[in-house]
Design brief:
Blueprint lengths: L5 H44 L5 E2 L4 E2 L8 H6 L1 H13 L3 H14 L8 E3 L5 E3 L7 H17 L6 E6 L2 H4 L15 H9 L3 E2 L2 H9 L14 H15 L10 E9 L2 H6 L7 E7 L6 E5 L5 E3 L23 E6 L7 E6 L7 H4 L4 E5 L8 H7 L4 E7 H6 L17
Parallel strand pairs: 5-6, 5-14, 12-13, 12-14
Antiparallel strand pairs: 1-2, 3-4, 7-8, 9-10, 9-11, 11-13
Length: 408
């Protein structure tokens, strides 16, 4: 009798088990296929049955809509790209799946989701690293040309660059996070020779002392951070800053979730608190939206505190041109502020010392230089975030109308 190989016996038993269980396995496989088909088909149908959303309050952005079909768009690939964006934005239970993705990413030890890093103290920090600094160099060169053009007019130009959470909250970052690449933008700014007020060092210093200078869930500084910038700007703008005791701190919301939270998917993060630094007569100012004619008494659009975009309570959000003046007051100097959204929380402090002409070059279509001359500005303050310097080209619009200054 031939000797049986033990390996053959094991193989034979395995094949017998497979043959016995095959019908059950085929049934389970079929059930899985049917379940997946039902789920995908159901979600596909729901995309068309449920009403399409035009705006996401959580992400504070417009959502993609179904694009119009054309042969040109199809052949160029634009149509399929836009259809993909439409499905991604209108997918049922989208926010649930965004949160689920964040859980999966962190569970897989990636330690970030959508370039947002969960840090110590509940801080959510956007990872910002740039591979090309050509936009920054063009923006800084545009600032220098603008400053030189206004010099004969006797209008000084002061530049201040607001830091980012990744710059300020170093103590909160993960131990192995390398900040060399993200900090490169400050080397580019220094190398450009542009005379800029140093906001990074003092704000970072008080952050490391435990002051709450940055929202944990947003990319903006808190009112305390804006106050720190106000103290530093006094050295260049020549005013005597008011001490903290001059202000009464009013907590206006403890339910603020910022844009970093929205993109992170980390829904378990606790909300932020928004504070107004109030002072006597701070409602005796008129804020005029020059384009729409809308008038507000004081600096705050408190209706936004009932919305997701609570930061817009400062100055009513971003507008092309806003004018702030103290009621029944004459002879106050005018400061022209060229800004992005960082300056919104700073306006109540600056208005103590100046009437303000405030423009946002993302929306303003006129000549900044002409506005400075026409309003007899005592100075121009260019205040924007480091990310604006590095990733947008809006500051190059400062050059519009410079050639016409000679005739003024």
């Amino acid at each position: 009798m031939a000797k049986t190989n033990p390996a053959d016996e094991v193989t034979s038993r395995y094949l017998e088990i497979q043959a016995t269980s095959a019908p059950r396995m085929r049934g389970a496989d079929m059930l899985l296929v049917i379940l997946c088909a039902v789920l995908f088909s159901g979600f596909g149908i729901l995309i068309w049955v449920l009403p399409h959303q035009s705006f996401s309050p959580d992400e504070n952005r417009n959502l993609a809509r179904l694009p119009e079909f054309s042969i040109e768009a199809l052949t160029s690939g634009k149509y399929t790209r836009e259809v993909g964006s439409f499905y991604a934005d209108q997918f049922p239970l989208r926010q649930y799946f965004v949160g689920l993705k964040a859980v999966c990413e962190l569970a897989s030890l990636k330690m970030q989701n959508n370039n947002v890093i969960p840090c110590a103290g509940g801080n959510l920090v956007k990872r910002l690293e740039y591979t090309d600094y050509s936009k920054a160099e063009k923006n800084l060169a545009a600032i220098d040309r603008f400053r030189d053009a206004l010099m004969p007019q006797g209008i000084p130009v002061i530049t201040a660059v607001a830091p980012r959470p990744v710059d300020v909250l170093r103590a909160s970052l993960p131990p192995l996070y390398g900040s060399d690449r993200s900090g490169r933008i400050w080397e580019v700014i220094a190398a450009s020779g542009t005379d800029s007020v140093d906001l990074l060092s003092p704000i970072r210093s008080i952050a490391e002392d435990g002051e709450h200078v940055w929202y944990r869930t947003d990319h903006h500084w808190t009112t305390r951070g804006a106050y720190a910038a106000y103290l530093e700007l006094a050295k260049k703008l020549g005013y005597s800053p008011k001490p903290l005791s001059f202000f009464e701190i009013e907590v206006v919301s403890d339910e603020f979730y910022g844009t970093t939270w929205s993109s992170s998917g980390m829904r378990w993060t606790k909300p932020d608190t928004i504070e107004f630094y109030r002072y006597t007569e701070d409602e005796e100012y008129t804020t005029l939206n020059v384009l729409t004619g809308e008038i507000t008494q004081g600096f705050y659009a408190t209706g936004y505190l009932d919305t997701k975009d609570k930061y817009a309570a400062f100055l009513g959000g971003n507008s092309a041109h806003v004018r702030v003046a103290k009621n029944n007051s004459t002879g106050r100097p005018t400061l022209l502020v060229v800004k992005d959204s960082y300056a919104n929380a700073l306006v109540p402090f600056l208005a103590i010392h100046f009437d303000l002409e405030i423009i946002d070059l993302r929306f303003y279509t006129g000549s900044t230089a002409a506005l400075a001359v026409d309003t007899k500005a005592a100075a121009v303050l260019i205040l924007c975030g480091a990310d604006t310097i590095a990733s947008s080209d809006e500051l190059t619009l400062l050059g519009y109308g410079l050639s016409s200054l000679n005739g003024r």
